[in-house]
Structures are given as C-alpha cells and as structure tokens.
Input
Amino acid sequence: MSFQRAVGLHRRLIGYHEGTVMTITQTSTSTPVLQGRRGLAVTGLGAAVAAAAATTLIAALAMGVGVDFEMPDGGESIPLLGFTQVTLIFSVVGLLIAAGLRRWSARPATAFVRTTVTLTAASLVPPFFVDANAGTVVSLVVLHLAAAAIVIPVLARRLAD
Output
C-alpha cells in the first residue's frame, strides 16, 4: 500500500473532509497543589495581619476609654503589642489547621469552621476566670471574637474553593 493511499484511508476512517481544520485544546480544571497551598498561605497570612491590626486597634480604643487590661495575679497590664503578637501567632495556628484539613479532610471548609468555632468558644472562657475587672473581661471577649470574625470566614472561603 502506498503512502498516499494509507493517508486517504486514514482520512476516511476519521471523517476528514477537505477544508476542515482540526485543533486540539488541552485544558486543566484542577488547581496545582503548590498554587493551592501558596494561595491558602497568602490568604491566611493576609487575614492574620488584618486580624492583628483590628485587635490592636480595638485594644488601643479600649485603653483610650479606660480599660487597663491588668491581670490581678501579677498586677501587670497586657501591652498593646501583646495583642498584635498573640493574634498573629494564633492566626498562623489557624492557618496550619486549615492546611492540615485541606490535605486530610474530605470537606475541609466544614471541618475548619466546626473546629475553629469550637476553639473560639473555648477561648472565651478564660477571661472570666482571671479575676479581672468587667471592662477587661468584656474587652478580651470582644478581641477574641473580632479576630475570629476576620480569620475564620476568609480561610473557610479559601478552603471551599
């Protein structure tokens, strides 16, 4: 069989017609793993910085209206930058939880929200047991809720993507 005859036979088998242009387009619907991890990290760190800024601002406003954030055991006040540091640290812990759940959970967004809401609720208990004044207790509760209200939805949305 000649080459031209083989080409003709092949064209008939695949339904080739003169003037028809055939193209192949390759698309990918999955997100590369590294890009997904990097996206979660960037989003999470952005949320952590936003939460730290918000808690620092709220704490500064509370101090401005007379809340002393004094802990009775040692008599020392929580410094303003202490709120920034603790918020950053625990927001990164939340980010690590999100990364672990993204890797090992079938429904990471749901598991993340359940886990972090439970941890947030648990974090609201200690301020009531430190024997601080009412302004300090209420301010600490508001600070915990403010940080959670910023970080949890941002990471949950990212995990749902």
Remarks:
- The first helix runs from residue 3 to 14.
- Helices lie at 3-14, 33-64, 80-104, 108-123, 134-160.
